[in-house]
Amino acid sequence: MREFNPFFKKFSKKQKRVAVVYPNRYAGGITNLGLQRIYFEINSDEDHIAERFYTDVFEGLRSVESGSYLDSFSVALFSLQYEEDIFNAFRILKKTQFKGRTVAGGPCVIQNPFPFVHLFDNLFIGDAENAVIDILENRSVEGLFPGSLKRRVVDLDSEMKRQIVSENAYGRSILIEIGRGCPRGCRFCIVRQIYSPTRWRSADEIISIAEENRKAADKIAIISPSPTDHPDFREIVHELKSMGFEVSPSSIRADKFDEEMAELLGDVRTLTLAPEAGSERLREALNKGIDEEDILNAVEMARNAERVKLYFMFGLPGESYEDLDQIIRLVERVRDAGKRVSVSVNPLVPKPHTPFQWMPYGGDWTKDVLGNIKEMRKKRKYLISKLGKIAETDVESVERFAIQTAISRGDERVGDYIERKLTLARIIKSDLIEFLESQPPDREFPWDAVDMGYKKSRLRKEFEMTLKRLEIET
Ligand code: SF4
Q1: H helices present in 76-177, as ranges
Q2: For ligand 1, what atom is nearest to the CA of residue 189?
């Protein structure tokens, strides 16, 4: 693990030591700009010093910077990016017998803090910028629970000017968050809900961040849920390229990848696209906003791409084997365009705060939880057998995503199971099974208590529109 531009700070006895824990692998943690920002803010304060923890460095028990054990820190800040990270977080706390204060934040806490309330002293819901020291000192801050259940939202004003640059998923790159939130309306997507409203960083600020970090790398990864939607995307890429940087966006929308974009981004070796569903019917129900023609056009435009990576989901509402066959057909068409194709298919997790929060895991209202799981397993086998013949195929486990669903839609009871390992068999035998079931229209969800800044009736309307379009009776 080699880091460029590291941030050294000398420890003095009067400083409070803060552990910034990413309960997952280094490669993911180092590309997390939110976490880097927290680390930067703590180390910019003279009374505090931060060190980082990752599960693949000393098993997450000792810090990267000095090798100190977690129990020598006063406060531990955990970032929960994925539901299953809670198992690692719990293991680290238990193994180190950490007695200090614990705070957890990140997307899993924002979407629903209640499964974690018994596991941490505080939970933080929202954007932490310019409030990290207040959070550490347990002062009253919007989004800090117990206390506030209002999601904290900040302007994207001043990005940290200095970041740790490492070999990451984008190569040795400077990462620049060009926007937060997403202007699109995909109905399954939690990102558009937990990071709304969409905020774009100005072109001037982006250029100045690139300038500040110039010595650390000559590549820039521009990060946002939908970077190509930035109103000045083309100008920004153009400017960064004229400064001598190689530029790659974290993702490209198929409907934005035209001749000019292909020219601008140059040698795209791997084109990553997310059609999400195989059939137009389901893509429309998801409100994905792209069609097969957009996908095939993008593939054609990316002339130098050797590989196309496609992301799909299964377990969608109203899904039939005909819809799965459409995934296979689309993959074949991309392959026939002369590309090496890799396909990733995940079960849909019907997330809180999305119009799909009322649907059952598996997407079939005529089946109970076990029936849906059984059908999902069958669909998974079907996809593997068909797709495996034509592309590199990865179809995620039905069990794993059921557990993710139960954690994301759960309440305080979930926390009690974390210690004893939450398996699908345990969920099914317990009252946690309700979190995999379809939900009645008037159900009060645990996460309704969080003020996210939207009206639940709007989500319900979108959900009912989807059901109507798919002719589903619930
Ligand atoms: S474009 Fe991507 S980030 Fe935006 S709403 Fe759709 S899935 Fe979510």
Answers
A1: 85-96, 107-111, 132-136
A2: 8
Question: Per the confidence metrics, is the pTM higher than 0.85?
Answer: yes
Q: Let me know: does 48 contact 61? Beta carbons within 8 Å.
A: no
- As a residue count, the chain comes to 474
Which residues lie closer than 8 Å to 365 by C-beta, 6 or more apart? 359, 438, 472, 473, 474
Q: What range defines the domain where residue 458 resides?
A: 266-469
Q: How high is the mean pLDDT of the chain? A: 94
Residue 151 lies in a domain: no
Q: Where residue 404 sits, what CATH number does that domain have?
A: 3.30.750.200
Answer yes or no: is 326 within a domain: yes
Asked if residue 260 belongs to a domain, the reply is no
Of 123, 145, 167, which one is at a domain's C-terminal end?
Answer: 145
- Please give the distance, rounded to the nearest whole angstrom, from the Cα atom of residue 57 to the centre of ligand 1: 32
Distance 225 CA to ligand 1 centre (A): 6
Q: Does residue 258 sit within a domain?
A: no
Residue that has been written with the tokens 């100190």 in this structure:
68
Q: Residue of the nearest CA to atom 8 in ligand 1?
A: 189
Number of domains within the chain: 3
287 CA from centroid of ligand 1 (Å)? 10
The protein residue with its alpha carbon nearest to ligand 1, atom 6, reads 186
For residue range 436-455, list pLDDT tens digits in order: 999 999 999 999 999 999 99
**Which tens digits make up the pLDDT trace of 30-41?**
999 999 999 999
